[in-house]
Amino acid sequence: MADIPLLSSVEMAGFVAHGSLRLDAVVPPDMNEEGIEVLRNGVPGVPYGSSVQDAYPDGSFVRRLIELPAVAGALYSLVGPGPSVDHHAVHVRYPHEGQAQPLHGDAIIDVRTDAFDVQLMYYPQDVTPDMGGTLSVPGSHLRRTNESDTGRYQNLRGQSRLVCPAGTVVFLHHGLWHGGRRNDSDVERYMFKIRFNPTVRQRRLWDTSDLHDPRVAENLSAHFPWYEHATARLEIYNRVLLWRALTGDDSFDLEHWVTRVANRPQKEVA
Ligand SMILES: O=C(O)CCC(=O)C(=O)O
Ligand SMILES: [Fe+2]
User: Fold this and answer.
1) pTM reported for the whole predicted model
2) Distance, CA 9 to ligand 2 centroid (Å)?
3) pLDDT in tens, 128-179
4) CATH number for the domain whose boundaries are 9-197
5) Is 86 in the pocket of ligand 1 (CB under 6 A)?
6) Domain ranges in the chain?
7) From CA 68, how far away is CA 26, in angstroms rounded?
8) Which of 81, 110, 148, 195 can pair with 104 through a Cys bridge, CB separation 3.0 to 4.6 Å?
9) Which Pfam family, any one, appears in the UniProt record (predicted)?
10) Are 92 and 131 within 8 A, CB to CB?
């Protein structure tokens, strides 16, 4: 995969900790202009499990979007070659609509620890602070909740309300808590989302040449302000499980937490 820029291990570790990866202004202005029109006109649904080739014909806007090198490189690093399309949707936040979408995860029931789907979110316009950018809660993706169970939470410390330049693409782990915010501006805010399912094992699909860079462990240890003192350790624990699955290195650990819990000696006393 020499022709697309793959993520580094440091970036992958950042994704495993945050549950998202943001690529600012990676879509060029002429495509963004076209993109707004495409989203305004609506993008017809495709059957669950469609291949990218079937869902988005060669040369179509969406196909060109996901073939942009930075987008293709990130997608390959996260879910590998040939992902299938779970579903896609155009999300519009309307001017002065008066309410936000409740916080939610898009997964209904999903307890996988060794695989994940990603959601590509594409913003063709500049998203200013009053336009209802997508709110997300860093580090929430491994705290397993079912879809809208988090809807009662209004604000969490350290939450991130997206403000971004036109042409920004964000990749979300399927479990990340998020929701469209209230649009207090005069313009419609557009976003196009595609959920991708991996069709290969998600193992060392990125550029692993920096696998032992100390920033990998540093990124995996990231703390987020909304975490409880004790339960925060469970987030780190779950990240270690995911990192082990992604790298195949079952000796990887942080603070010996997974090692301790994995210790079930089979040796009998003689
Ligand atoms: O509009 C947004 O920013 C988010 C939309 C969304 O998450 C959804 O409808 O599932
Ligand atoms: Fe959503």
Assistant:
1) 0.96
2) 27
3) 999 999 999 999 999 988 888 899 998 999 999 999 999 999 999 999 999 9
4) 2.60.120.620
5) no
6) 9-197
7) 8
8) 148
9) PhyH
10) no
What residues have CB less than 8 Å from 41, skipping those under 6 apart?
A: none
Strand segments, DSSP code E, in the chain are: 20-23, 50-51, 84-93, 118-123, 134-136, 160-161, 168-173, 178-180, 189-197
Whose structure tokens read 């809208």?
148
- Retrieve residue 149's tokens: 């169970």
Residue with tokens 């991130």: 160
Q: Which amino acid is at 169?
A: V
Amino acid at 102: P
**Residue 190 corresponds to which tokens in the numbers above?**
């557009």
Q: How far is the CA of 175 from the centre of ligand 2 (A)?
A: 10
Query: In the structure, how many helices (H) and strands (E) does the chain have?
Result: 8, 9
- Pocket perturbation via mutation, ligand 1, pick of 117, 134, 160 by most ligand atoms within 8 A of CB: 134
